[in-house]
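Write out the 3D structure for:
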Amino acid sequence: MIYSRNSIFFILIVFNVVPFAISGCGYQKISVQDLLNQPIEEVGHFNFSRKYIKSGITVVYLTGSPYEIGLAHGKLCREEILEINKPIFEFYNGMTEESKHWLSKAENLEKQIPAEYIEEMHGIADGSQLEYKKILFLNTVSTISEGRGCFAFSYRDKDSRIITFRQGDMPTETFLYKNMILYIIKPEKGHGFAAILNPGWVDGESGINEKGVTVTQNNISIAQKEWEVMPITLLSRYMLQYSKTIEEADQLLNTQKKYPARLLFVSSPKSAAVFEIANNDKARINMKNGYLATANHARIIPSQPVSGSSYSRLEYANQFLRENPSSMDFDKGLALVRSNKISRRWTRGVQNILSFIFSPSTLDLWIAIAPDSNYIPASYGPFVGFNLMHELYGSGDRPDPDSFPAY
């Protein structure tokens, strides 16, 4: 595939930006206890959906029919949708004859999107007062651009719990919006879930559902050649909303005729698996010996050559996990995720700007408060905890622990 100079610039500068990081305090000034002690601040509501700030994180709770969820999403997050996605909308508005193939690809991808998500996107468009085609483009652009970094690993701790860590990376030369939104979504069908999402996207990126299934997306370094695929945003959402187990996630993938090019890291209270999907190919890698990690390359399905840094990053994590087979805990997980190799502290041009921890058995999740500096990894900041059942239903225990201190 050949891209124009403007398209290449757009891929590098925009599509690698997944602006999940939180508005923030300076690296040395963050007091995690102060964040935890802040009273919940109600920001807005629409029908049965609402927006509030808790422990320094903006949370948006959405419920109802697909259209109602989208409408509330658009109304409650219109400002963030416009601000955070501004470069994508500017690219859309400035499309030339040379770049209009991006829009035609979006329209082709739309044919593979389930009807309920089409309705939800229409709701977002109406709620945010944007034309539907812009929202469609927003929700297909990461599949078209094929770009994303990221890293994930799971381990079985001494109490036989599965713990999953998730890192998100982006080029440091891009702008960095620090307006994270944690979406808590209770749809009419399927399972309620929490996901840290780009406003305006119908996505399952970096999420956990009420059955304890987590889903995250990672780059696979394989070019997209087949276009009769469900966009990766919608496919990961589909898996998160409708999977009770890893086996069910696998079965949902098997219903697809062709695939967007990605690695999907899926974990549950019992185990973890990596799904390699791209074009006509699909493979699965299961957890062995109590741990599993993935970097940005395929290990089973055919792929193009990738940089040595992806291999070395994965081997570093595997070596660490091999050396701690019976003693892995949160402290060791944080030590790994904060290491230079995984956090990319000294990697030129790319920086870790997102970091999350999931506990599938307890439905707890922890979100790193990213430092102000684009050159200090998000994982170096403190992590604040949430419990999915508490956010969905007002029940459930507080996350244990309620936080992790900064590095």
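The mean pLDDT is 88.
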